[in-house]
């Protein structure tokens, strides 16, 4: 991905220019050279698809790092790209490595050939037409076709590496830690211009792919670097998904969404069922479009609802210029999220402003004993980042990031990376901060944690965060499905994770067993005083029982836990056990990569990994829900506990005042008529949506702040030392 129109950027020693910035200047010994390339066409490229064609695209690399990727030309062995790119190169001895791939969405792209362009052999300031024969190093005798290029190499003077900026985004799954440098001139390249809201409704008359005449379909969406994968619907040709998700719209005039449908096959390669695409430039904004999309290379129709909306408050600015420090703008924002506007635009819950001040004592990632740190700030699927500070372990960024809040239960993740010319960015540390834990306007030092957020790593980062939100909107949004992250690591089979989830489930079951033993002890008269009290309570409740007493009874443990916490008796002491479990898993994660015996164990599990992952995830789901119910009553997130109290009070009053038959009748009429009233509604379970916002014990440990040395006081400013 390249923002070519925004000037020049440096990609690990190679700088990418926009078309309007191509300058040439003679120099005796220039530090930089401008390499202008026109990717014209391909000739007689290799066949990689079953239909006798390919979907080719081209990558340019120098020093193993990708600096350009062309668009994909579908179903063509003689594609015409006619794309231009300008690179600033500081080392002519490094050849330009050109690779061609066949695009297979959802699968690994097929290699179609490669070639080298040797820069030292090029004449300066002269445009050359170059034809490169593609080769496969594994099969040098195969004829893979050729590429036609136009190449111009010119000396460039007055451009230093420190003055350049990096805009390339590496969103591939193989690269977990993308690298990007940002300057003030090019900050807008990170900002999205709108939101594409997509509801995947259903498919009709799909092609049967299994021996039973049915399929297990799921859908993959891709828009640039953004990806989303739907759930699988088993054994049907007319699946109903009813899923909703959002993509960011970076291009002012729209863009394309690639959609493919797949049949899930356990233990072997999934079957391709068809593809389609959406041209967003053809859709009007602020209007919901119902699209019936026929599947190419397959059978059936996919039904979607697509809405394009303008972008909310998203910005990057310097520390000296930010909206919440302006009293007039702050007053306007407070009015926008005031109680009087609680039912206006329910998706716009609030706004969060993050000031990334500086970091201290970072890990030295380079052989020189220094690092080139930059900082990435993420909120759900929104992602922005700072510029890079070179050769510094105590960097100062002084940047302000503003995000729109769609769910007040989201977690703000701030990650520090070391930019590296020769490989992907090195991880330096990370913090995760739930929005509801933020103290507005407090400049605070956060100790950096490991990748898994289970233990400390070297360094602290200083942040100042403000959150303004509407509590009514936040409460209502709690009862709808949580937004899924569309950039996630693939699940991995882990013996330690399997054991950890088993232990979590065992703890939940042991709690239920202990409750059962306690009740049974009342029947056994182990404690006469307790048994007499229990017997009298039982007779009293049964004799006077009314339905409204059920939600009223659930209020009692909430109130009791609140009283205990208010009196200084914390009921959440069992988290130390979970912390120990996670530390063991973190150590095991590192050993998996080093210990050949563990690798052998993983290889043995690979054959049944679908079953193992299903069991592992099922244990995680069961344990998580048990822990979330406990944490609701433990007041782990006070906002959610108060919301539960409000809901239980309302339920108690309704059940007390309204006969049960009327409540059941209203519920049944709503269920039966929902599809008639809105055929494309996305059904949900409000209770499960509420519980999904309550953190499990694992998440509580991950979000817990590290205790810092008092020397790291945010108000005690240290002199910035490059070392």
From TrEMBL:
Keyword Metal-binding: yes
Residues in C2 domain copies: 18-132, 174-295, 335-448
Any one GO molecular function term: calcium ion binding
Biological processes, Gene Ontology terms: regulation of neurotransmitter secretion
Keywords: Calcium, Membrane, Metal-binding, Repeat, Transmembrane, Transmembrane helix
Pfam families noted in UniProt: C2
GO cellular component: synaptic vesicle membrane
Alphabetical list of Gene3D superfamilies matching this protein: C2 domain
Its membrane topology: Multi-pass membrane protein
InterPro entries the UniProt entry points to: C2_dom (IPR000008), C2_domain_sf (IPR035892)
Highest taxon in the source lineage: Eukaryota
Family indicated by similarity: Belongs to the MCTP family.
Name of the featured protein: C2 domain-containing protein
Species: Esox lucius (Northern pike)
């Amino acid at each position: 991905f390249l923002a070519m129109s925004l000037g020049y950027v440096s990609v690990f020693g190679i700088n990418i220019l926009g078309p309007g910035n191509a300058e040439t200047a003679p120099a005796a010994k220039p530090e930089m050279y401008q390499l202008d390339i026109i990717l014209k066409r391909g000739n007689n490229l290799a066949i990689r698809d079953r239909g006798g064609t390919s979907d080719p695209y081209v990558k340019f690399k120098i020093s193993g790092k990708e600096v350009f990727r062309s668009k994909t030309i579908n179903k063509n062995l003689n594609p015409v790209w006619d794309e231009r790119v300008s690179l600033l190169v500081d080392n002519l001895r490094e050849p330009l490595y050109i690779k061609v791939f066949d695009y297979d969405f959802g699968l690994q792209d097929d290699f179609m050939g490669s070639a080298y362009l040797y820069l030292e052999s090029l004449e300066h300031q002269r445009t050359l037409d170059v034809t490169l024969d593609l080769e496969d190093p594994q099969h040098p005798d195969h004829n893979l076709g050729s590429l036609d290029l136009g190449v111009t190499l010119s000396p460039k003077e007055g451009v230093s590496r420190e003055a350049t900026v990096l805009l390339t985004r590496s969103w591939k799954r193989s690269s977990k830690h993308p690298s990007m440098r940002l300057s003030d001139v090019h900050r807008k390249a990170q900002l999205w211009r709108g939101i594409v809201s997509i509801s995947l409704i259903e498919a009709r008359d799909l092609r049967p792919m299994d021996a039973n005449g049915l399929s297990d379909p799921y859908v993959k969406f891709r828009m640039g670097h953004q990806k989303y994968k739907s759930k699988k619907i088993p054994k049907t040709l007319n699946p109903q998904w009813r899923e909703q998700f959002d993509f960011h719209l970076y291009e002012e005039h729209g863009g394309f969404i690639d959609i493919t449908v797949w049949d899930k096959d356990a233990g072997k390669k999934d079957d391709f069922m068809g593809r389609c695409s959406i041209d967003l430039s053809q859709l009007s904004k602020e209007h919901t479009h119902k699209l019936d999309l026929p599947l190419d290379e397959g059978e059936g129709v996919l039904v979607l609802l697509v809405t394009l909306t303008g972008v909310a408050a998203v910005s990057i600015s310097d520390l000296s210029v930010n909206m919440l420090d302006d009293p007039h703008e702050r007053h306007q924002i407070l009015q926008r999220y005031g109680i009087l506007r609680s039912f206006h635009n329910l998706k716009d819950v609030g706004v969060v402003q993050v000031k990334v001040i500086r970091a201290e004592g970072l890990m030295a990632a380079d052989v020189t004993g220094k690092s080139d740190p930059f900082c990435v700030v993420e909120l759900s699927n929104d992602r922005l980042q700072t510029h890079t500070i070179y050769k510094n372990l105590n960097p100062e960024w002084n940047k302000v990031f503003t995000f729109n809040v769609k769910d007040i239960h989201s977690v703000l993740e701030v990650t520090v990376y070391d930019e590296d010319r020769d490989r992907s960015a090195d991880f330096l540390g990370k913090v995760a901060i739930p929005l509801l834990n933020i103290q507005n306007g407090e400049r605070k030092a956060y100790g950096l944690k490991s990748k898994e957020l289970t233990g400390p790593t070297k360094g602290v980062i200083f942040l100042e965060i403000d959150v303004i939100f509407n509590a009514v909107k936040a409460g209502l949004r709690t009862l709808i499905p949580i937004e899924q992250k569309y950039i996630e690591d693939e699940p991995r089979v882990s013996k330690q994770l399997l054991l950890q989830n088993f232990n979590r489930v065992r703890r939940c079951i042991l709690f239920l067993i202990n409750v059962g033993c306690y009740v049974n002890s009342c029947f056994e008269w182990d404690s006469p005083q307790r048994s007499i009290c229990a017997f009298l309570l039982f007779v009293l409740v049964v004799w006077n029982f009314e339905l409204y007493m059920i939600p009223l009874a659930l209020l009692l443990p909430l109130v009791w836990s609140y009283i205990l916490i208010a009196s200084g008796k914390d009921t959440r002491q069992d988290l130390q056990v979970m912390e120990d479990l996670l530390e063991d898993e973190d150590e095991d994660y590192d050993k998996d990569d080093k210990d050949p015996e563990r690798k052998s164990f993983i290889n043995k599990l690979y054959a049944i990994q679908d079953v193992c992952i299903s069991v592992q995830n099922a244990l995680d789901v069961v344990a998580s829900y048990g822990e979330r119910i406990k944490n609701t009553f433990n007041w782990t997130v006070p906002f959610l506990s108060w919301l539960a109290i409000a809901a239980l009070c309302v339920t108690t009053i309704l059940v007390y005042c309204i006969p049960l038959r009327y409540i059941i009748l209203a519920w049944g009429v709503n269920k039966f008529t929902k599809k008639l009233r809105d055929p494309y509604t996305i059904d949900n379970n409000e209770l499960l949506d509420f519980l999904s916002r309550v953190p499990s014990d694992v998440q509580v440990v991950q979000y817990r702040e590290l205790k810092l040395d008092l020397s790291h006081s945010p108000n005690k400013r240290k002199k910035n030392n490059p070392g």
